[in-house]
Amino acid sequence: MIRFLQPWGLLALIPVLAVAAAYVWLQFRRRAYAIRFTNVEL
């Protein structure tokens, strides 16, 4: 079993992971938006 000297340090990872997840989600959303509204006839 893993033991941490500072277990509260794991709580500091939660905001970092949330920001990373939001960034990835926004990148996929932007790509889908660009594909949907692209004028292919040009």
For the record, the count of structural domains works out to 1
Gross geometry: rod-shaped
Whole-number radius of gyration? 19 Å
Reading the helices and strands in chain order gives: HH
Structural class label: mainly alpha
The average pLDDT value, as a whole number, equals 79
Task: Report how far the terminal alpha carbons are from each other.
Answer: 60 Å
Q: What are the segments in which pLDDT stays under 50 over at least 5 consecutive residues?
A: none
Number of helices, counting only DSSP H or I runs of 4 residues or more: 2
Q: How many runs of DSSP E, i.e. beta strands?
A: 0
The amount of beta strand, in percent, is under 5%
Molecular structure report:
The protein is mainly alpha-helical. The mean pLDDT is 79. It is built from two helices and no strands. It has one domain.
Quick structural summary:
The chain contains 2 helices and no strands.
How are the elements arranged and paired?
Elements: H1 8-11, H2 13-36
Features:
mainly alpha; 42 residues
